[in-house]
Amino acid sequence: MILVIMLLFVLLFMPSKPNTNHFKKNEVNNSNNNKNKKIEKGVYKLLLKYTRLELNKFIIAFVVMILAVGMNLITPLLLGDAVTILSKEVIDIKKIIIIIVLYIIILIIACIIQYYQSIILAKAGDKIIYQMREDVFTKLECLSIHQLNETPVGKLVTRVTSDTNALNDMYTSTIVNLIKNVLTIVGVIISMFLINVKLTLWVLITTPIVGILSYIFRKLARKIYRKVRHGITSVNTSLSENISGVKLTQIFNQEQKQIQSFKKVNDDLEKSYSKQILLFGIFRPSIYAVYVLTIVLLFYVAGKDIIDSNFVLESGLIVIFYSYIEKLFTPIQNLAEQFNVLQSALAAGERIYDVLNIKSELEDAEDAIEIDHLDGEIEFKNVWFAYVGEDWILKDVSFKVKAKENVAFVGATGSGKTTILSLIVRNYDIQKGQIFIDGLDIKKYQIASLRKHIGQMLQDVFLFSGTVESNITLRSEEITSDIVKEACRFVNADKVIDKLPNKYNEIVRERGKNFSSGERQLISFARVVSHKPNIMILDEATSNIDTETEALIQDSLKKMMNIGTMLIVAHRLSTIQHCDKIIVLKKGKIIESGTHLELLDKRGHYYNLYQLQYEKKN
């Protein structure tokens, strides 16, 4: 009873928010409860959906499990018969030998069944988790840039790895063993009733205590496991962020502050784990205490009946009930562990469910078309755009770019240059106005088809771990080695790659750290050219380039201007002087446009920028 009181104490004194407004709190709680119930229902549906993928294997495992439960229920009867025979004055050796042989056969069959069941479930679980990881990763890949930017990288990694791993144990062992333990409990109770009703009723007196303990455990476990999963996510997020920014941390000598920041989230996770261990540590001994109490009741009732001479219980019957009580409480204790895993899995399932049910901000329209080619004519008509609310980045922007024109965008930081380029490839959708490509609203194109014909070269070039060639082809089977080499020659990247020890098979380390900024940029140029786009976008692609490769890049740009429509964002005005049109932006509005010479003649904002850079250069 002390253990029961301890459980109730933990339940009642778990940290909660202060009751500042009772009515409002009840309203919020009701709303949260409804939301939680909806999520739980969704999680169960999701897990059932994945279970159906390997339903045949689970059915086989279930049939095999029923055989195992049946044999498990037979062994106490054999032990009881053996004890009964041995308690007689004349012992029947043949019967004893038969019982021993049967017992050994049952044990061998049980081992074989256990092995076969484990193999089936392991294969089923692996395939389900494999598919789940694929689905989560695919979902993340389909989310908009805005949605991905709102979520820390560590959190996303946790969803794909840790959370799916938590579900693996549930599929490979917990579900089937949970059912097995429930069937064992039911089978034991039925068997005891068939053998002796009176003893069974006495034995079952303790079941309400088990029910109360299990109910309290279930309520507490779910809350604690949610905190554990949240804690794991926080640790992964902090770890990812700190490793990515370790260079900056060291430059500003902030190691101790970052260590303290990580220690805080790590301590929170440790506290959650401690609560989990405490809860489990109270529950299992509580069940064992009830088991001991049940055994005491069995011997009390049996002894009392013998003393009162109402009837004499056979020793074999007492052994049978003793074995059945053990088989009754062992599954109950196992249920605690399995419930442990199940709660962890369900908490992880909630997070995976949240990811899979995120609706992408960018989706193809029902009548969206797929295209094989773009001429490259682009038109913005009264476009308004804001990343958040009505904090407008672009304000009533209108311009037209003819097919195969080279157009540059200039302006101060935050004027909307990069935003315009992001809108053309539909990284974001506009709030007002329209964007046309080849006379058709870009929302009428399939997103993948549109992006296939637009090549982007960004300031911060990202290279994947792999080889130089795989970073150019992005593992596209349509791009052969000959196409790669031709593209590299076209953009002068071959002059860098040919100097490498393994040339196109040179290993690229994480994020291309073993290449300079200029080398990474040339590889990105080759990547774009090899994919043969009809529209090319250069966003500050010539900034932060070392002097050695600047000449190569400038020559590459001149060649690339003849491929198709080119849109350029650049701070170096010297790189855009030969463009067909230059559009000048200020605070989200177009204030000037024309050729380099036309804008200089106007002596406006562009003229001032040019004069400023010219003076700095001199």
Please report which band the strand proportion falls in: under 5%, 5-15%, 15-25%, 25-35%, 35-45% or over 45%.
5-15%
SSE class: alpha/beta
Question: What is the gyration radius calculated from CA atoms?
Answer: 35 Å
Portion of residues in helices?
55-70%
| Order of neighbouring strands in the sheet with most strands | 6-9-10-3-11-12
Distance between the termini: 88 Å
SS element count, helices: 21
List unreliable stretches of 5+ residues. 1-29
Structure overview:
α19 links the parallel β9 and β10 (565-569). It contains 21 helices and twelve strands. By secondary structure, the protein is of the alpha/beta class. The chain has helices at residues 2-12, 22-53, 55-87, 93-142, 145-149, 153-160, 162-195, 197-203, 207-244, 246-251, 255-308, 315-356, 417-424, 447-452, 468-473, 481-490, 494-497, 517-530, 547-560, 596-602, 605-617; strands at residues 378-386, 392-401, 406-411, 432-437, 440-441, 454-458, 466-467, 507-508, 535-539, 565-569, 581-586, 589-594. Helices cover 65% and strands 10% of the residues. α6 (153-160) packs across α9 and α7 (162-195) runs antiparallel to α12 (315-356).
